[in-house]
Design the sequence.
């Protein structure tokens, strides 16, 4: 659709390197859009005391679709130290702008597809029974609840008396009754039925569209009965509308073991916020790691697509840049799928597959080299060369 506007937020470090590469690929595939730059990240914390300025929120409210690179976050003491002098001691508090975006727009569904590309030297391999090696094809989509659970931020050290009193209404709290307040930390794990339902339904819909055999709820309902239990119970209800798709139930700990044993068996996986974070990194490690891990943060009114990796400050100033643009380009493909441009997304993924299978143009991570300026001399491709190769294969 001509006239579509996409808010681009390169952010910090290598976010500034990889995001323009994705836009080059989108242009080359013939996606008609206008890109509107938006400010986000450390620079705006330092200069304005806010890493997520209101003008960026306004642009996203208007255009509803964003591409995000990466941001740098630093611990509280460093954040305070780097804040510009005239803003100091004015009550500014640093919050991660990506968490801020997820909360502001209620981007409650985090989708992280993890797919093997044939010929990627970073693919998971395992020993076969006959002593040879096997390279299973992984094609998994993790649906991570993005706004609740252990990352919702409802937590205390030394909880206020009324909280402590409320907690003590639970018989199991008796075990902690003599712990002095300053020695007691509590992080809550809040699930709501509505959010469980949205993420589970999204997973089943995706499974149907992709022809997956199963949706797995990966939680720990045998121990965390209330929250994990709610997710599983919701999935059992939703599954009734999808009789063609099996519902599996795994515990997060066992799942982390099984993903190196039989990753090819899984389709869509649904988890709460923290377990989704863990299991998605686990699967990403089987298909190429941070250089390939793409993601989407999807809400009802807005969606933002981003690579999973951060700003990798060690590499931000290398000229030419050496980081892998694939995760960002694959995130742009997810955006295309989201807006119904599935043919263009498929063409880009096909071009990526061709580049990887040919194996001539590879960033340092694919060559298993330690990163640094020397990798180019050692035969690694630059970021730009990888993008050029993808474009040439479209
Ligand atoms: P990171 O993901 O930035 O980098 C870790 C390492 O992974 C890098 O040193 C590099 O070896 C490798 N790597 C990352 N992206 C790569 C790519 N595209 N190609 C090749 N190799 C790549 O994580 P780190 O070092 O823990 O954090 C750096 C900064 O990024 C911190 O300030 C952190 O808070 C922030 N961060 C931001 C995220 C976001 O914007 N969504 C996510 C994770 C971290
Ligand atoms: Mg993570």
Sequence:
């Amino acid at each position: 659709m001509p006239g579509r506007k996409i808010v681009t937020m390169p952010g910090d470090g290598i976010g500034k390197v990889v995001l323009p590469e994705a836009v080059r690929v989108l242009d080359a595939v013939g996606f008609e859009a206008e890109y509107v730059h938006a400010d986000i990240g450390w620079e705006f914390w330092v200069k304005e005391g806010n890493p997520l300025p209101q003008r960026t929120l306004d642009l996203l409210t208007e255009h509803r679709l964003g591409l995000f690179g990466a941001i740098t976050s630093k611990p509280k003491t460093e954040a305070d130290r780097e804040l510009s002098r005239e803003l100091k001691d004015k009550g500014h508090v640093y919050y991660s702008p990506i968490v801020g975006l997820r909360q502001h727009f209620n981007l409650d569904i985090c989708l992280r597809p993890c797919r093997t590309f044939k010929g990627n030297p970073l693919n998971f391999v395992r020993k076969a029974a006959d002593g040879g090696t096997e390279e299973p094809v992984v094609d998994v989509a993790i649906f991570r609840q993005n706004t609740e659970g252990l990352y919702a931020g409802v937590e205390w050290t030394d909880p206020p008396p009324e909280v402590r009193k409320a907690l003590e209404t639970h018989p199991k709290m008796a075990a902690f009754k003599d712990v002095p307040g300053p020695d007691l930390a509590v992080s809550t794990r809040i699930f709501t039925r509505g959010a469980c339902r949205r993420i589970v339904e999204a997973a089943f819909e995706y499974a149907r569209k992709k022809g997956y055999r199963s949706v797995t709820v990966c939680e720990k309902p045998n121990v965390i009965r209330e929250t994990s239990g709610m997710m599983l119970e919701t999935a059992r209800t939703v599954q009734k509308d999808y009789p063609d798709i099996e519902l599996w139930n795994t515990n997060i700990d066992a799942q982390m073991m099984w993903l190196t044993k039989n990753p090819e068996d899984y389709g869509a996986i649904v988890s709460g916020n923290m377990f989704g974070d863990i299991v998605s990194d686990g699967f990403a490690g089987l298909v190429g790691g941070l250089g390939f891990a793409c993601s989407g943060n999807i809400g009802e009114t807005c969606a933002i697509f981003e690579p999973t990796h951060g700003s990798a400050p060690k590499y931000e100033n290398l000229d030419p840049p050496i980081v892998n643009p694939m995760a960002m380009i694959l995130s742009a493909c997810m955006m295309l799928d989201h807006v119904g441009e599935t043919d263009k997304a498929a063409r880009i993924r096909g071009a990526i597959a061709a580049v990887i299978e040919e194996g001539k143009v590879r960033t340092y991570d694919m060559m298993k080299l330690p990163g640094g300026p020397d990798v180019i001399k050692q035969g690694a491709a630059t970021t730009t060369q990888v993008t050029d190769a993808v474009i040439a294969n479209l």
About this structure: Residues 14, 70-73, 98, 290-291, 306, 309-314, 323-324, 327, 365, 371 surround NAI (ligand 1) (CB under 6 Å).
